[in-house]
Amino acid sequence: MSLKTTLVTSSETFTESLMDDIVGNGKGGMVWRGPHAGGIKFLSTWLPSWCQDTAMSINQGLKELAQDIDGTKKE
Length: 75
Known about the structure:
- This protein is mostly helical.
- The protein contains four helices and two strands; from the N terminus they run E-H-E-H-H-H.
- The protein has helices at residues 11-24, 37-46, 49-57, 62-70; strands at 2-4, 31-33.
């Protein structure tokens, strides 16, 4: 597994470095990128998946999207 911290770069530079990690070195496996990669990697080994899903969906507008799809959106 690759654990790297990525600084703010252009999308093209980020894509090139990510592609190099995925297909360029032949290692395969998970790629951990970003400023919080270490913490997330650590927590993902200890937290149950339902807890991770809940944490990642907070304040993402999923409740509003579901209401809009169901036609129950309050306006």
